[in-house]
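Report of the visiting student (M.T.), summer placement. My assignment was to run the structure pipeline on a short list of targets and document each run. The first record concerns tRNA/rRNA methyltransferase SpoU type domain-containing protein.
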Amino acid sequence: MDSIFFSRVQDLNKLRLPKDASEMMRLYKVPYNDMKAWSSVTTPPGIIGCTDLWDGKTLRGAAGAHFKVRVRPNVSWSEIGELVNREESRLMLASPAASDDGHRPFMRDVPTLQYWEPDYTERHNFIVIGGETEGISDEAFELAVQTEGCQVTIPLANNVESLNSVAAASIIMFEIKKQMMMVPMTDDD
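After the run finished, the structure tokens were exported:
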């Protein structure tokens, strides 16, 4: 666990954290009204910027895909880096905001393509979908630079601010499936 956001100290005490918890992770005391503004959930999940893969809404949204693909929870960026081989695979980042705001100079080192431009059939693809509020993490951008990855964007109509993460992932994965279906079958298949 990296961070805990809390509004009442007594709630934090109920977690029975070790005495040196503040040295092992960041603790943020946030006013209750701010916490309420961040989420309409009446019982917050407790983890901001993360998804419980086995939550009912997540399972319904994935329409059973959890049971058809290998799920590897709690994978570190260094482990992902070991899996991404430049010749055989590519790391792609998809974020609601693919512009350089000056805070991430290494963003300029990651080429940006429209979501239909990469040839998804030539290599294995690792796709990182950024959250709607936070976008892509610095660690993901650094790994994309190290592995010669790219950013993919989805053009939006006028006055549309962003897509939610599920919609963006669906569009990109549909394009991958479309390209895979267009590859001619060989005798080896």
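Strands lie at 3-6, 26-29, 89-94, 112-114, 124-129, 150-153. The first strand starts at residue 3 and ends at 6. I thank the supervising group for their guidance throughout the placement.
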